[in-house]
Structure formats: structure tokens, C-alpha cells
Write a structure and sequence with these properties.
The protein is of the alpha/beta class.
Length: about 700
């Protein structure tokens, strides 16, 4: 059987699970859970079909305009809201493809008059929907009637909580890999960014009609030889705590201390008190440097054997490892619970590793051993690049070291003389091979149209290589792969990345103290019950944290001050609390309205203020803004649109009476209801729950 036939046969079988008995049995249960969840996710989407753009009055108006111009050979018009106070009109039209093809001069001379003539003679003008048509440079501006504006507002009331949804991404299955913590470690601030961004992207994809699959990829193998061996040796030195993941975090710190002392070849007086105490407790008192090194090497060898036993499926080792992973998952749930985040699938690297091995065994000459002959040839190519000044001497040295490190490993050759190591020389899997196993599993059983990895910027090169290797191996399944990386949480003073041990980076502490900060604002308020204070302060805190993170370009760093009081003040100033306050202000007005008023009933004619028209334009543009945010993976654009709407409404509210002196302005109540619903929906799409009142 040829290599190609062997790989094709392997892929066609779609078998799972693989691996030794203990792991295989565990993974079989997980696989069955995945299949059940997959059915549930798709059933959830089917039970709530996407909201067609055609449901919206403005979309229908745009389609009518498009059909009208298409009948005269002018297709794909771009329709944009403009400020009536500034331009004298409400909308402008241009045809981008014709403008690009003809150039400004010919377009203005030929196309603009043609559009103007078509519109002036159209049913839209005759019916009074369009009240003015005016050529202006490369644009044709339109004024539209107040009754159309009122219809745009009533759209919001008729659709309600689903206002803003669309079918822009209908038919797409999008898997989003986000959060991705390391088992046996504590969560840090970086996990806030990944978790928030991933969850909000899923919300946006769903709002735009896609089926979103929320996936948490747990690193449950890295370092576990040391955890297993360390726990067996030193469990009596670990803290007694209800949170068992604290014991694993302690093991991590102990191991890092020993590793640092060993690698830096320090001993005796060169050790800090903490380091000396750690060595004494774990390896004994009065050790010589030579004895320490000997005992550390023995410990590392034992840890490696433990990991081999884990991958080999030793039942006792697998059982202890599974308990340890469970401790970590229970700990992580505190964080996810605070953020109200739920993943559809929670799967560790261990789930994919056996499949990765099976794939590499079937891949034939698509993978190869990087032997000395290939290493020599690679070094010669590096030397030629260095000699031609295509790379610097420092880069050349870096490449030569990487070449030597890879000797004996199994690799996939990539473009531009690159390679991806997929199996160590001792036959053990690594991150890259497990990521390939994950891609294969997902394409086999989910068949996503797109896979989105929300992982930090330091993994950019890794994912570029993994995605290319998937294509080389033929396991990409036609899926589009995207790594949506993000900047770090950094110290505001030093601009340095926060480590997982920094106080401000402890996510549980950060979130719980943020809640306490907002709760203090209700001190002395006897109009709020204790339960309402708890719920509202949590909504304000979590919403402000999310808004602060999403409002910034995801590629930029987010600064945190060392003073948590300053951090929380910055969260509040970011705008999330302002948007929630504006929605609550609108709600408070609506509560005061006479109950006999039916805002969904046809409205008698009214004359709108320019400020009211501008607010309605922002509301009418909202569904398209949600779809654009989803299509561009850009929640920040949606948050900025919400802020714009809040500024307009607050300015309007302070200048124009809605309910005052016994007079009810029904169209202003209608506008207020539409503003409130749009803000609440927009916040929800961004995973922010708006309080009933503040």
C-alpha cells in the first residue's frame, strides 16, 4: 500500500479513540460526550433559526433601492447614513465598483446624474418614502420621511431581544478554541483576555447566524511527569486546602525552584533563604553541590519515567493523573462561574495525543526523520543565507542551534526552508503533534467551516506552522484556520508583562475585589436590597472588566496599575458602566409611562427633531454593525457604536422632554424603548448583563 493510500485509508476510517487501554477507555467516554454535545449545539441553533436581514425595515428599503438601480444596469450600491444637520440629508449612495472602474470625473459626469434621474422618477419618491434627491460630488444624497424613521424604531419593538441578529454567517460552523489554561497551574490575567474575547466572538458569530462551538483546550500533559513524581515523594509537604489545585501549584513552584538552582549551578551561600529551605525539605539537609545535582538528576529521570508510564497507559498513574486534572478543572470553574462562561467542549491534549501518533504513523513520507544528513544540508543553506546577508549572524546562529536541537526528531517540511517538529527523538508527542491531532479530530467529527484560535501573540509562529503542516498532511478538511492573537496584560508603570505570580494577575482576586469596589457605591442606598446590591455590583464589575478589555485593539497590551483601586477606577472609566447606566436611565423613563400606551400600535403623524433622526439612524445601523463585528472578529467596533448611541441619547434626554408636566410624547417613548433594547442587546452580544436599575 502506498503512503498516499495508507493516509487516505486512515482518514476515511474516522476511527476513535486510539491509545493504551486506560487512556482509550477514558477518551472513549469523552468522545461520546463530544458527539452528544455536538448534537445539542446544532439542535440549539436549529431551534432558533437566524434572523433574516430582510426582517428589518431598513434592509428592505436598501433591497428596494438595489433592485431599482439594478434594473437600469447599476448594481451593488453602497448606502450610508449621514448627519442631516451637517449635510441636509439622511443617506448617501455611491457605487464603489463603478467609481473604481470609471474614475471620479467620468463617474460624476455619467453615473451620478443617472442615479439621480432614476430615483426622482421612482416609486420611493412618489410614495413619499424618499422626500429629497440631491447629487453631491460622487454621492447622491437622500432625505427620507419621518414615517420611515418611525417604522425603523418599531422594528426594534417587534423583534425585541433578537434585535441586531442576522443571517450574515448563516450555514457556517465556527469552532472557537479559547481560554486554554494549563492544568496544575493557577489562572493569570492573560486568561481573562482569551476567555472574554473567545466567548464574545462566539456570541457575535451566533448573532450573525453561524453555529458557534465553544472549545476549551486544556494542557493536561505538560510537566505532569514532575507533578506525578513530586506528589508521590513530597505530598506531605503540600498545603492542606479544600482547593486541591493549590497543591499542584505548589508542586510547580517547588519544581521551578529546584530547576533554577540546578540550571544556574548555584549552591551554598548563593541560594536565597527560600531556595535553601526548599532544597533542604525536598532533598535533605547538609547536601554538597555534587550530591544535590546527583539527586536532582535522579528526580528528573524518575519524572520522565512517570510521564512514559502515563503515555503508556499505566492504570495507577493514569488514575492519579486524572484526579489531578479534575482538581484543576474544578478550580478553573470558579473563574468561569464568575464570568458566566460555559464551554461546549472541554478536552485536554491527552485526548488528541493518541490520534496524533496514529496520524504520524499513517502519514508516510509526508513526515520524515530529521537526520544528520538533513541537518548538514540545512546548515549549509543557513551559511549561504548568512554569506549573502539575507539573514544576520545572530539569526544564523539561532537557526543552527535549532537545526542541531531537531536532529533525530520527526518533522513535517514546510515552505521557506522551515520545518515543524511533530515527534521528539524519543517518540514522545509535543504541543505541535497534539495540535495536529486536535485539528484532525475536529475536521473528522465536526467539519467546521472555520477554526478560530484565541491564543496570545507569543504563539503566532507556532500556529502559522501548525496550520501549514495540517495542509501538508491533508487533514485540514477545507477548513479556514485563524489565530486571533492578543496583547498581554502589563504593569502600567514598568510596561512589563504580568507574571502568573503577580498579585493583580490572580483572576479570582481581581474579579472579586472589582465586585467589592462597585458594591461600595451602594453604601447608604436603602432603595436596594442586599441581594440586589450583590447582583448589580457583580454585573457592573464584570461588565466593566469585559468592556475595558474589548474596547481596545486586541493586538495591543492592556495596562494594569499595581494599585487595584486605580485598576477598578480605570475599568469604570472605560465605558461599560456608562452604557449600562444609559440603558437603566431609559428603563426608568419607561417605568413612569402610563400603562395604557401601546408603543407597538400605529403612531399618528409626528415631526421629528434632527437629534431624534440621528439617534434612529444609529439604531437602524445596529444589525449591520453586529454582522460586521462578527465578520471582522472585531467586538471593539460594536462597543464604540454603543458608546456613540449613548452619547447621542444622553445629550437628547437632557435637552428634550420625554415625560414632563403631564404631557406624553409617544414617539419619544418609542425612541427611548428602542435605545434601551439596542443597548441591552449590544451588551449581551458582548457578554455583559445589564442591571435592571442602577
Amino acid at each position: 500500500m502506498s503512503d498516499q493510500t495508507a493516509l487516505s485509508t486512515f482518514l476515511a476510517r474516522r476511527e476513535f479513540p486510539y491509545g493504551p487501554a486506560a487512556m482509550k477507555e477514558r477518551n472513549a467516554r469523552l468522545h461520546e460526550r463530544v458527539l452528544r454535545t455536538l448534537d445539542e449545539v446544532r439542535a440549539r441553533r436549529a431551534s432558533s433559526p437566524p434572523m433574516p436581514f430582510a426582517s428589518y425595515r431598513f434592509s428592505r428599503f436598501s433591497n428596494d433601492l438595489n433592485q431599482l438601480l439594478s434594473q437600469h444596469g447599476i448594481g451593488e450600491p453602497q448606502l450610508t447614513f449621514i448627519d442631516r444637520a451637517k449635510f441636509g440629508d439622511d443617506l448617501c449612495i455611491k457605487i464603489p465598483n463603478l467609481l473604481k472602474e470609471l474614475g471620479n470625473k467620468a463617474y460624476v459626469a455619467d453615473i451620478v446624474p443617472k442615479i439621480t434621474s432614476i430615483l426622482l422618477e421612482s416609486p420611493l419618491v412618489q410614495a413619499g418614502v424618499v422626500t429629497g434627491v440631491r447629487p453631491t460630488g460622487i454621492y447622491v444624497n437622500l432625505a427620507v420621511s419621518d414615517p420611515l424613521f418611525i417604522e425603523l424604531l418599531q422594528d426594534v419593538l417587534h423583534v425585541g431581544p433578537r434585535y441586531g441578529e442576522s443571517d450574515a454567517l448563516h450555514g457556517q460552523d465556527i469552532m472557537v478554541d479559547y481560554s486554554s489554561p494549563n492544568a496544575a497551574k493557577k489562572l493569570h490575567a492573560g486568561h481573562i483576555r482569551s476567555t472574554i474575547l473567545g466567548e464574545v466572538l462566539c456570541n457575535l458569530y451566533e448573532a450573525a447566524g453561524a453555529t458557534a462551538h465553544r472549545l476549551n483546550h486544556i494542557n493536561d500533559l505538560g510537566g505532569f511527569g514532575f507533578y506525578l513524581e513530586g506528589f508521590a515523594r513530597w505530598h506531605q509537604h503540600l498545603p492542606e486546602a479544600a482547593n486541591k489545585n493549590d497543591q499542584l501549584a505548589t508542586l510547580y513552584r517547588l519544581n521551578r525552584t529546584l530547576e533554577k538552582v540546578y540550571e544556574e549551578n548555584r549552591f551554598g551561600d548563593a541560594l536565597s533563604k527560600e531556595e535553601a529551605h526548599t532544597v533542604e525539605i525536598l532533598f535533605g539537609a547538609g547536601l554538597s553541590a555534587a550530591t544535590f545535582r546527583e539527586r536532582y538528576q535522579e528526580y528528573v529521570a524518575a519524572a520522565n519515567r512517570k510521564f512514559e508510564a502515563l503515555e503508556g497507559g499505566d492504570p495507577e498513574v493514569v488514575a492519579l493523573w486524572a484526579r489531578m486534572v479534575g482538581w484543576s478543572l474544578d478550580d478553573f470553574e470558579q473563574f468561569y462561574g464568575l464570568l458566566n462562561v460555559r464551554h461546549d467542549y472541554v478536552l485536554g491534549e491527552s485526548f488528541y495525543a493518541p490520534l496524533a501518533l496514529a496520524l504520524l504513523n499513517a502519514a508516510g513520507d509526508r513526515v520524515m526523520q530529521f537526520d544528520q544528513a538533513r541537518a548538514v544540508a540545512a546548515k549549509e543553506r543557513v551559511a549561504a543565507l548568512e554569506q549573502s546577508a539575507a539573514i544576520t549572524p545572530l539569526e544564523a546562529e539561532h537557526r543552527r542551534k535549532a537545526i542541531q536541537d531537531d536532529v533525530g526528531a520527526l518533522v513535517v517540511e514546510l515552505s521557506n526552508d522551515r520545518r515543524l517538529v511533530v515527534l521528539r527523538s524519543d517518540g514522545r508527542t509535543i504541543y505541535a503533534s497534539r495540535d495536529l491531532g486536535a485539528i484532525l479530530y475536529r475536521t473528522m467529527f465536526v467539519h467546521p467551516s472555520r477554526m478560530v484560535y484565541v491564543v496570545g501573540q507569543e504563539q503566532k509562529e507556532h500556529f502559522e506552522d501548525v496550520f501549514e503542516a495540517a495542509r501538508v498532511l491533508g487533514i485540514d478538511g477545507g477548513t479556514r484556520f485563524d489565530h486571533l492573537y492578543f496583547g498581554f496584560y502589563v504593569d502600567a508603570a514598568s510596561k512589563k508583562k504580568l507574571s502568573s505570580r503577580d498579585g493583580a494577575s490572580n483572576v479570582i482576586r481581581l474579579l472579586t475585589e472589582a465586585i467589592a469596589f462597585f458594591a461600595k457605591k451602594f453604601d447608604g442606598r436603602d432603595d436596594f436590597s442586599p441581594d440586589e446590591v450583590t447582583a448589580t455590583s457583580r454585573q457592573l464589575a464584570i461588565g466593566s472588566v469585559i468592556f475595558n478589555d474589548l474596547k481596545k485593539d486586541r493586538k495591543n497590551n492592556v495596562e494594569l496599575a499595581s494599585d487595584l483601586q486605580k485598576v477598578f477606577e480605570d475599568f469604570e472609566k472605560a465605558g461599560g458602566a456608562y452604557v449600562m447606566y444609559t440603558a437603566c436611565r431609559a428603563r426608568s423613563i419607561l417605568r413612569k409611562a402610563p400603562p395604557s400606551i401601546d408603543l407597538k400600535a400605529p403612531l399618528e403623524s409626528c415631526t421629528l427633531e434632527d437629534s431624534e433622526r440621528e439617534i434612529i439612524k444609529k439604531i437602524a445601523a445596529f444589525p449591520e454593525q453586529v454582522a460586521t463585528a462578527a465578520q471582522r472578529d472585531d467586538p471593539a467596533s460594536l462597543l464604540n457604536a454603543l458608546l456613540d448611541l449613548c452619547r447621542l441619547y444622553n445629550s437628547y434626554y437632557n435637552a428634550v422632554p420625554v415625560l414632563k408636566g403631564g404631557t406624553v410624547h409617544v414617539h419619544r417613548l418609542l425612541l427611548t424603548e428602542a435605545v434601551m433594547q439596542t443597548l441591552v442587546n449590544g451588551l449581551r452580544f458582548c457578554h455583559i448583563s445589564c442591571p435592571e436599575r442602577i
